[in-house]
Amino acid sequence: MSENMFKSKRLPPRPELYWQEDGVPRDQINDDVYFSVSNGLEETREVFFRGCGLVDRWQAMRAGISASNTFTIGELGFGTGLNIAALRQLWREHRPNPQARLEVISFEGRLMRVEDAKTALSVWPELASDVQTLLSLWPVRAKGVQRLCLDFGMSLLIVQDEIEPALKNTAFKADAWFLDGFSPAKNPEMWSSEVMAQIALHSAPECVVGTYTVAGHVRRALAAGGFEVSKQPGFGTKRERMQAIYPTLPKPEIYCDPLLLNTERACPASVIVIGAGIMGACMAQAFHERGCDVTVLDKGEGIEEGASANPLGLVAPRLDGADTPQARLLIDAYLAAIAFYKTQNIGAWPVDTAHFSSSNEEIGRHAKIKDDPPLDTDLLGVLEDEGRQMGLNYLSSMAVSPVDVRSQLLKDINVVWNTKITSIGAVDGAQRCVTAIRDGQVFEYEADLVVIAAGMGIADLAGGEGLPLRGRGGQLEYAQYDGPDFARSKGHYVVGANGKIVFGATYQDSDGKAPEASDAARAENMLALDVLAPELKEKILSGKVQSATAVRAATPDQLPFAGRLPEFAAYRAHYGEDLRTGRALKPIDGQGFKALYQRGMYAAGGLGSRGLTWAPFLAQIIVADAFGGPVPTGADSRELIAPARFFMRQLKREKPKKD
Ligand SMILES: Cc1cc2nc3c(=O)[nH]c(=O)nc-3n(C[C@H](O)[C@H](O)[C@H](O)COP(=O)(O)OP(=O)(O)OC[C@H]3O[C@@H](n4cnc5c(N)ncnc54)[C@H](O)[C@@H]3O)c2cc1C
Ligand SMILES: C[S@@+](CC[C@H](N)C(=O)[O-])C[C@H]1O[C@@H](n2cnc3c(N)ncnc32)[C@H](O)[C@@H]1O
User: Fold this and answer.
1) Region entry tRNA (mnm(5)s(2)U34)-methyltransferase: which residue ranges (predicted)?
2) Among candidates 297, 267, 270, which has minimal Cα distance to 281?
3) 111 lines ligand 2 (CB under 6 A)
4) Mean pLDDT over the full length of the chain
5) Pocket test for ligand 2, best of 87, 190, 199, 212 (most atoms within 8 A of CB)
6) Is the distance from CB of 426 to CB of 279 less than 8 angstroms?
7) Within 10 Å of residue 403's Cβ, how many Cβ atoms?
C-alpha cells in the first residue's frame, strides 16, 4: 500500500476485495487473505487472546474506579472486525467486575464497507450477536478517529490513516497488542522497524504482543524497542509463533508537549460538574457512565433556561477545504455528535441540511470540497441547480431538541439548581472544594474532580486572562410546524422537526448576558426565512411566532477548549521568558516540555455557535484524559482545543522585560 494513495485524496481508499470460492475475502492490493475460513476464529483466539494471556490478566484487574481496572488493547489492521467481534464475546464472558473497562484502539487504512464485513463475518454464527453489535456501529469512512461505544464497558477507537503517521499522532499505552497486518512479505508497511518502534512507545509495562509471524526483522525490531522476544509453539500448520513482552519496569516519562498531558490518570470516584447546559449534561453523563458519583450544580432555575434550551438546534458539519489537523478535528467532532445523538432515544431527528454558499470565500471552499470530499456520498452531497454549484448537502445531519436531550442525559444524576458557584479551592491538596450560594446561604461541595462547563460563567470561575471568552448574543424565532423534517442554511438557518420550526439566528456582541428580544432581530430572522424557506412563510406567519434569546460563549480562534485547567502562573514561570523572547523552550526538570495543570480541575467551553456538535465529543475527550485512555482525536487536532493555548499565545505577545 503506497503512502501516496492516502495523501492524494482526503477520503481514505477502500480495499480492493476479491471473494475466494470458500467465501474468504482477499485483498487484491496486498494479495493476501483477511483470515482463513477453516481456522481464522480459532487462530485469533490462540494467537491474540491466549497469546496475550487476556483472560488471566483480566482476572487480575482490581474492582473499583482505578487505572488498574481498565485494560487497553491496540490492534494493527481492523479489517473485517473479526478480532473485535470475538474479543467482545470473550470480554462479555470474562469481564472481571461490573466496573471493569476494555479500551481497544484499532488502526485501519482501508476501511471495508459494512455490507462486505457482514458477508465476511457470516461464516461464524457463534459470534452472531457480537457481529450484529459491531455492524450496527460500523464506522464511517473518513480520515481521523471515531469512537464506537460498545457495551459491557467496552469501547473501540478506530483510527483511519496510513499506519505510521496514525501511530505517531496518537497517545496511549496498550497492555496488549494484536499485530494483524497482512503477511510481512506482502504488507511491509505494517511491519517496518519504524512501526515496531511506535509499538514499543505505545506499550505499558508488561504489555504482551500477539502475532502470528516469526519474521526475523519483526523480531529484531521489537527487541530493539525493548521487548523480550521468544519463540513459542505455533498454531495449526505454523511451527512457531513469536511472543514479545515489554519489561515490567516503567519507562521514564518523556515530556514533549507543553499543551497536552495524558499520563497522570485522575480516575475520580466523585465529580462535580458546574453547569447543566449541553456541555455539562454530556460531561455528567460521560462520567456517570464510567461509574463516578456525579453532582451537577447550576445557578439557573431549571432546564428550560439559557443557550442550551433553544427550541431546536442544528447539528451540521463545518468542513474545511483541505486536510489539516483542524479539518480532521471538525470532522471527528461532527461524526462523534451524530453517533451520539443517534443512540439517544429522545430529542434528535436525522435531517438533510441544504447548506448554500454565502460568500466568495465559501464558494471557493465548497468547490475544493466537491473536488476532494472528506466524507462519503451517504453523508455529503453537492447542491446544484442547472449544473451550477450552489452549496453542499449534509445528509443525515441532525435536528436536536437540547432540552429533551439534556433531560435524558441528566435523568439519573443529582442536579442541584439555583446554586451559583462563587469559588473553587482545594481540600488537603487532593480533593476539590466548591463554594456555592443558594437562597442566600453558603454551601460547600467536595469531589475528586471538578469540571467547569458554565458557558459564559467560565470567565468568572476560571478564565481571566488565560481563557478569553467573548459573549455573542443571539435571537431566533420559533413556531408550530406540521411539515416534513428539513433544514437549510446560508449564514442563518431554518430547521423544522418534531412539530416545531426554528429560524434565525442573529449574532451580535454582548456583555455576556442574553440580549433583550428586539424587532430589529426579528426582521433579520424574517429576511432569513424569506431567503431559505419562502414557501413556508405565509403559513408560519398565520400562527404564533415567538422569539428566544441567549448568549453564546466564543473564543478568539472560534474553536472550543476542553481539558485540564492550566496553572497559569506556572506557565508564566516556566515558559514565559522563552516565549517572549522567541527562544527554544527550556525543558522542565531536564525531562522535556510538559503541560502544567491545576490538579483535579477541568474546563470545557467556548462552544460558540456549534455547542450541540462539540459537547458530546469534548466530553469524551475529557473522560479519556481523566482515565488515561486513548483520546478520540489525533494529538495534532487535540492541541487546537487545549485550554493552555491562549495563555501561551499571550505570553508570546508580551514584550520582553528590559534589563
Ligand atoms: C440564538 C442561538 C442559536 C443557536 N443555534 C445553535 C444550533 O443550531 N446548533 C448548535 O450546535 N448550537 C447553537 N447555538 C449555540 C449553543 O446554544 C451553545 O453553543 C451551547 O448551548 C453552549 O452550551 P454550554 O453548555 O457550553 O453553555 P450554556 O448552555 O450557557 O450552559 C452553561 C450553564 O452554566 C450555568 N452557570 C454559569 N455560571 C455558573 C455559576 N457560576 N454557577 C453555577 N452555574 C453556572 C448556567 O446557568 C448555564 O445553565 C445557538 C446559540 C444561540 C444563542
Ligand atoms: C489481515 S487484515 C486484518 C484482519 C483483521 N484484524 C480482522 O479481524 O479481520 C490487515 C488489515 O491491515 C490493513 N492495512 C494494511 N496495510 C496498511 C497500512 N499501511 N496502513 C493502515 N492499514 C493497513 C488492511 O487494510 C487490512 O484491513
Assistant:
1) 1-247
2) 297
3) no
4) 93
5) 190
6) no
7) 19
Query: Mind giving me the DSSP string for 467-524?
Result: S--EEEEEEEEEEE--S--EEEEESEEEEEETTEEEEE---EEESSSPPPP-HHHHHH
Ligand 1 mean position, distance from CA 200 (Å): 43
Q: What is the pLDDT at residue 4?
A: 46
For the Cβ of 273 lying below 6 angstroms from any atom of ligand 2, the answer is: no
Cis peptide bond N-terminal to 426, omega within 30: no
Helix, strand, or coil (residue 111): coil
Q: What angle do CA 385, 387, 388 make, to 5 degrees?
A: 65
Is any ligand 2 atom within 6 A of the Cβ of residue 161? no
Which-ligand-closest: CA of 435? 1
Higher pLDDT, 317 or 584: 317
User: Which residue is listed with cell 525490531?
Assistant: 221
Whether residue 1 is predicted with pLDDT greater than 50 in this model: the reply is no
Domains of the chain in sequence order = 3-251 (3.40.50.150), 270-306+406-468+557-653 (3.50.50.60)
359 contacts: CB under 8 Å, gap ≥ 6: none
Amino acid residing at 130: D
- For the segment 403-446, what is each residue's pLDDT rounded down to a tens digit? 999 999 999 999 999 999 999 998 876 789 999 999 999 999 99
